[in-house]
Amino acid sequence: MGTQLYCASATRILCRTALLLAVTAIGAHAQSVPMPRTTTGYRIAGTVVNAASGEPVRRATVSVLSEEADGHIVESVETDNDGRFALESLPAAKFPLTASKRGFLTAFYDQHEGYNTAIVTGADQDTSGLVFRLTPGAALRGVVTADSGDPVDGAKVMLFLKPHGHNPGARITQAGEAVTDDTGAYEFDGLAAGEYLLAVKAEPWYAMSRSAAGGKQRTEGDAGAVLDVAYPMTYFDSTTDEASATRIVLAGGSREEADFNLHALPALHLTAEMANKTNGGIASPALLQIVCGAAISVERSRTPNPSGTGPAETDVAEFYGVAPGHYELTQGDPPRVAELDATSSQQIDPNLGTPAIAVSGRLQSSNGAALPANLSIILSSLEDKPHIPLQTQCNNGSFNFAAVPPGAWELILASPTKSLPITAISIGNRTHSGSKLNVRDQPIQLVATVSQSETRVEGFARNEKGKGQPGVMIVLVPKEPSAFPALVRRDQSDSDGSFSLRDVAPGQYTVVAIEESWELDWARQEVIGRYLSHGVAVTVTVSSGKLLKLSEAVPVQSR
């Protein structure tokens, strides 16, 4: 039973809401809400094993949850010394199944990414021999030291996770942050298996920034220059080049160490004009350091223009204590965005960079219904060297991005409750399907059409013997290529082979079922296209209603 997150796009980011509800409920399982039992109820039973070693896990809590939105506990049991569990007298229903134990990652049964296989009870269902593989949490620790070998206290250690699977537009995401203690040590625990990157940001304790120097930049002959230093952003294994960073692969239950040694370099001082806006305000320059796709703001001080040249009303912003490295600078009005490889102190040319473009618009519902309140709009870059995602709030269905760098972008509507895909974008008299747009050299005003369809497509995945097959990846592929990935829906088949694809927008689709395919690069149309000829076609219309059941089973295909 696939559980999806709608904070950006149901096909891009996967939901953890139901899992968090399960964790909360499991921690208080003594207060679970039982469903009425029948004298001829059904049984869910099996064994919980360590996914890394195969050994049984004793005293793990196993719970069946309701399929309702609140995901409350129906029943809970604890495994015995052999890892066995049995949940008795259950009604005929579909139950998400979870397991938890200290030192392990709480998970749903047969979980892949944000999807899982629910257990279906009934007269013809065999649910008594389940093997629930629970993955032990991994740990990562290390020590940060300086040139002298002394520990670096208060260093910020940032942990980043490389995306697993093939969600369209998936980027490296920050998975945690730790601060070193007085011994320079840090630790992350309870980590999922995966591929990670580490970065450290710190300041030498003896560093004298511009502000501490009383507004005077140190020169080479100044005795204080030796104190005007900074640590560059440092990646494991002690490199300042992100492209050369060593990836750390964690398996379930593994314990790895990653130490850093930081080298101080002369600090840089960068100055940029604070331009006057046409509305009377001041356009303050912003300097960001991009670390694995995350943005870290660089502090600055604001000082009156000391030269006496240029517009008298223009101030100067100075970024002080800057370590050599790669930055993104936004300055001026209209704003300009520039990539900056900072190797020396300098006055930034106000004409440096590419003019950013204003992108504004409004939302319209495809069925004319009112849109939910408190929506956000995200612009996610589709470039090889992506910009940081831009986000703004919708005000009565309208939105505005003041400064968007030129390039290819995807427009995403963020809702905490359901998927609201953008199915079309209109600019002037031209309309195209999907949610992508190209920003060039002119401001853009657009209308984004949003689907509020609540149609749920249900069906069964069956193997060549005609039996329902659990744990299969289900993909609903739109016929129109430009609608990919906005309208794609995925799920994982439940124990009887059933699946449910929610909030499907009107359109023509093909449903495919592929076994052992969670590593498949399904987001590439040339890859998923190989399976379409053996899929099942389905058309969703505005009159399809809330439930559309497939009249034929979807054949399971091998990867």
Description:
The protein has 559 residues and is mostly beta strands. It has five domains: 17-134, Sandwich (Immunoglobulin-like), CATH 2.60.40.1120; 138-215 and 225-265, Immunoglobulin-like; 267-350, Immunoglobulin-like, CATH 2.60.40; 357-450, Immunoglobulins (Immunoglobulin-like), CATH 2.60.40.10; 456-557, Carboxypeptidase-like, regulatory domain (Immunoglobulin-like, Sandwich). Helix content is 3%, strand content 43%. The protein is built from two helices and 47 strands. The strands form eleven sheets. Strands 40, 41, 42, 43, 44, 45, 46 and 47 form an eight-stranded mixed sheet that branches. It starts with 16 loop residues before the first helix and ends with a strand.
Give the arrangement of secondary structure elements.
Elements: H1 17-27, E1 42-50, E2 61-65, E3 73-78, E4 84-90, E5 94-95, E6 97-100, E7 107-108, E8 119-120, E9 130-134, E10 138-145, E11 156-161, E12 173-179, E13 185-191, E14 194-201, E15 229-230, E16 234-235, E17 248-250, E18 255-257, E19 260-261, E20 265-266, E21 268-276, E22 282-283, E23 286-291, E24 294-297, E25 301-304, E26 315-322, E27 325-331, E28 336-342, E29 346-347, E30 354-355, E31 357-365, E32 376-381, E33 390-393, E34 398-404, E35 407-414, E36 422-427, E37 430-433, E38 436-439, E39 444-450, E40 456-462, E41 473-478, E42 489-492, E43 498-501, E44 507-514, H2 525-528, E45 536-540, E46 547-549, E47 554-557
